[in-house]
Amino acid sequence: MVGWDPDIYLDFAAERARPFHDLVARIGCARKDERDGIAQVVDLGCGPGGLTATLAETWPWAHVVGIDSSPEMIAKTASYRLRGEVEFALADLRAWQPAEPVDVIVTNATLQWVPGHLDLLPRWVETALRPGGWLALQVPGNLGDPLHTLLREVSGSVRWADRLGDAEHTRAEVPDPVGYAEVLAGAGCTVDVWETTYLHVLDPEGRFGPDAVLAWAMGTAMRPVLDRLPDPAERDAFVEEYAERLRAAYPRRPWGTPLPFRRIFAVGHKPNPAVEPAA
């Protein structure tokens, strides 16, 4: 299991939040002013809980549940347990099954850590989502970017390969947008699938100096690698080797460090035959 540090992850909370909000905005029932029967909302891979709590603002009359497999992340959610509208639970989303079908399932920047996650989507649509419900997901689509290729390069080098050669493979391959469209459509959903490349301007104030992208990676991509390097001296040596390459690939400008970041989004709507008869 990947060891997560919520505080490091939240160093770039605003940048990580933007795709979440863009995803939720495309869910067809995300209307604060309409009581549209949305009673149960689940966030699979909720992390430290701040974004999950915003779902209670989108659907203020619904019960919102956040699920995560990281004890560290779930421990961080304590401040977001708002008057009973939001609750959090420690669980593996691969085994998650609600007691009754829910109205909305959101999973944001999580499925890339779940090998074979395409097999989960039809099951969730069939057994975990009520007729008329919505399944919305977002995954990073940037495994070919220097952020990851350089990490694989260093991990697979002569110095580190015996311990780290496959560490980055903890992250699963993700299909292109058509792949998600095919799976959700095959499960009977109407689909809305797209991709976006954000240009995040990291750390304009210069807190991380030339290492803003390294700081970003320390909260996500590097976690499986760091888990395998318990010795502080070895860990520091690896981080410096990787950092040197990142500085060349992502040079800091006077106004910050630009980080292009491709993400894939998919929203599936499960028809309700009672109110949405087939054409």
Describe this structure in words.
The chain is α/β, with parallel strands linked by helices and 279 residues long. The chain has one domain: 3-Layer(aba) Sandwich (Rossmann fold). The chain is 34% helix and 22% strand. It is built from eleven helices and seven strands. It has helices spanning 6-9, 13-25, 50-58, 71-76, 120-128, 146-155, 161-164, 177-186, 212-218, 223-227, 232-249, and strands spanning 40-44, 63-68, 86-90, 102-108, 129-140, 190-202, 257-269. Strands 3-2-1-4-5-7-6 form a seven-stranded mixed sheet. Helix 5 (120-128) links the parallel strand 4 and strand 5. The longest helix has 18 residues, at 232-249. The protein is globular. The model has no long low-confidence stretch (mean pLDDT 89).
Topology:
Blueprint: H1 6-9, H2 13-25, E1 40-44, H3 50-58, E2 63-68, H4 71-76, E3 86-90, E4 102-108, H5 120-128, E5 129-140, H6 146-155, H7 161-164, H8 177-186, E6 190-202, H9 212-218, H10 223-227, H11 232-249, E7 257-269
Parallel strand pairs: 1-2, 1-4, 2-3, 4-5
Antiparallel strand pairs: 5-7, 6-7
Helix pairs in contact: 6-11
Briefly summarize what is shown.
The chain is of the alpha/beta class and 279 residues long.
Distinctive features:
279 residues; alpha/beta; Rossmann fold; 7-stranded mixed β-sheet; 11 helices
Q: Helix coverage percent of residues? A: 25-40%
Major sheet, described briefly? 7 strands, mixed
Number of domains: 1
CATH topology name, in short, is Rossmann fold
**Given this structure, which CATH class is correct?**
Alpha Beta
Strand order of the largest sheet: 3-2-1-4-5-7-6
**Number of helical stretches of at least 4 residues:** 11
CATH architecture label name = 3-Layer(aba) Sandwich
- Which structural category fits the helices and strands? alpha/beta
- Give the beta-strand count: 7
Unreliable residue runs: none
CATH homology superfamily name: Vaccinia Virus protein VP39
Strand content: 15-25%
Question: What characteristic shape results from the CA principal axes?
Answer: globular
Mean pLDDT: 89
Distance between the termini: 46 Å
